[in-house]
Predict the structure.
Amino acid sequence: MNQHSQQLEKPPELERGTTERFSSKGFIVAAIGSAVGLGNMWKFPYITGENGGAAFFLVFIICLLLVGLPVLMAELTVGRGGRGSASGSLVRLSGKPFWGRFGFITIVGAFAILSFYSVVAGWTIHYAVLSFSGQLFHDADYAARFGEFIGGWWPVLWQAIVMLLTGFVVAKGIASGIERFNKILIPAMVVLLVVLMIRGVTLEGASEGVAFFLRPDFSSLTPQAFLIALGHAFFSLSLGMGTMLTYGAYVDRRQSLGAATFAIGLGDLLYALLAGLIIFPTTFAFGIAPDQGPGLLFVALPAAFDAMPLGSLFAGLFFVIVAIAAVTSAVSLLEVPVTYLIERKRWSRVKAATIVTISCLAVGFPSAVSVGGTLPGLEWQGKTFFDWVDFITSNIVLPVGGLVVTLFVGYAWKRAADEAGLTGWWLRIWLAALRYVAPILIVLIFLHSSGLLKL
């Protein structure tokens, strides 16, 4: 066997590629479910509140177009072209293990993100139960109530519930599990969002909140706000963590990736818009400042719902929406390492989903008990175990993962245009964005989020 054939020889599992497939509509719904998570329902409102409202929202939209959609399409193109995991697809398309090692980083990143993401998802389910039962409003000191909750052992139980549900869905497969799950929950979430939006914008005094969110005041913008918007545009589409690349492996050849990319981006933007039209009118109507930081969801909003007629019902519906968004994203995160193990180890889907679920629970336990100080000693240099996992994955792994795919499609993979199905000006714009715009912006995201660039 000559040297050339040795270089291109791949393990048998990399020759096959996955045979499972989404339907066309099922893929788009599942991808929107992956993109619409806690980033839209939790992080986006509070960073928008902290950075001036409508002007920040507009910058976020621009960043979504400049970096989000081009990189999203690149990930989907690699996934469909390679028909495998985030690592296997890069190896299969390049014939070089070098690229696969970078893909493996995103697989580890997705696993690590899920280990703490499931903790916050569990919080949302807990708050939905508290809201519907009316127990959430027994004590008006919502900050103390939240601190008491995360400082106890209940988060461990709720995290386990989230992981077991997520593992069950993934174990059922692409069509019977992930697609069916998202086809039920995503439309239900849209209906609930519209109901709550109507309730929010019709509250007395809500118009001030609507204006804050939709009427730009560019004097409030700062260079730092631009970088935050840039980072969130990247994060909100689930880029750099292998989820979209993995979902792309299950996309039918007849599916237009350009149309799918546009639909996913539009869906992500729509959910962010609806979330803002729920949260800002509600908080302004009851005199609550929007710049509450991460506590906006679990501290400020319960106070607003408490002052609202039928507050328990609307609070319960709101936290159900957030929980749905969190779990649909958790499903996509779990699928990343599961696809890898099916590909590399030839495990059954059920075995891979079971082992990854149990492992993620074990790794996530320190996050569940560190954020509220339940167990001492899980803090270093002012950050808890939860904070460190969040910091490393969100600020280092995601930008690196996104940059690798961007450079691979923009420079290394010569058949990317054929797989993407773009021609003419659309192809030129996409390749220019991947080669010249997105890499620079992703590096800026990395430098800013890691603390190396301060403004």
